[in-house]
């Protein structure tokens, strides 16, 4: 079964306020077994319009990734991000088919 992922691109506009979001999202991420694969870090954007921060979270499967995003725990955490950052978030199913 393919894993599920969140891919988020974020511009933090209020670093102090954003810390409230970071602290609050831990409850949802823990409950749904999220694993950070990317959490900030150095990057280059050879195409497109980047945001300042990139995050990739891995979940057991797509349904779990969606359930985490839609959960009351995450929605409460997300409210802390209002006024502290602008994000693009996608929830996507991984690929576990043949590789080159």
Q: Please, could you describe this protein's structure?
A:
With 100 residues, this protein is α+β, with helices and mostly antiparallel strands. Helix content is 34%, strand content 30%. It has three helices and four strands; from the N terminus they run E-H-E-E-H-H-E. It has a four-stranded antiparallel beta sheet, covered by helices on one side. The longest helix has 17 residues, at 15-31. It is flat. The two termini are 19 Å apart. The model has no long low-confidence stretch (mean pLDDT 97).
- The count of domains is 1
Helix content: 25-40%
Radius of gyration: 14 Å
Fold-level CATH name: Alpha-Beta Plaits
Task: Report how far the terminal alpha carbons are from each other.
Answer: 19 Å
Q: How much is the average pLDDT?
A: 97
Topology as a string of helices (H) and strands (E):
EHEEHHE
Strand order of the largest sheet: 2-3-1-4
Spans of at least 5 consecutive residues whose pLDDT stays below 50 are none
Write down the overall geometry: flat
Q: What assembly state would you assign to the polypeptide chains in this entry?
A: single chain
CATH architecture: 2-Layer Sandwich
CATH class: Alpha Beta
Main β sheet profile: 4 strands, antiparallel
> What is the strand content?
25-35%
Quickly give the structural class.
Answer: alpha+beta
Give the total of beta strands: 4
Q: How many separate helices?
A: 3
Describe the structure concisely.
The protein has helices at 15-31, 62-70, 72-79, and strands at 4-12, 35-39, 53-59, 85-93. The protein has 100 residues and is an alpha+beta fold.
């Amino acid at each position: 079964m393919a894993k599920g992922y969140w891919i988020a691109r974020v511009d933090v506009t209020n670093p102090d306020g954003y810390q409230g979001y970071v602290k609050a999202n831990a409850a949802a991420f823990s409950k749904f077994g999220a694993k950070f694969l990317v959490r900030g870090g150095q990057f280059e954007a050879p195409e497109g319009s980047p945001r300042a921060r990139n995050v990739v979270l891995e979940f057991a499967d797509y349904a779990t990734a969606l359930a985490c995003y839609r959960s009351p725990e995450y929605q409460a955490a997300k409210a802390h991000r209002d006024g502290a950052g602008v994000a693009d978030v996608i929830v996507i199913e991984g690929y576990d088919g043949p590789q080159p």
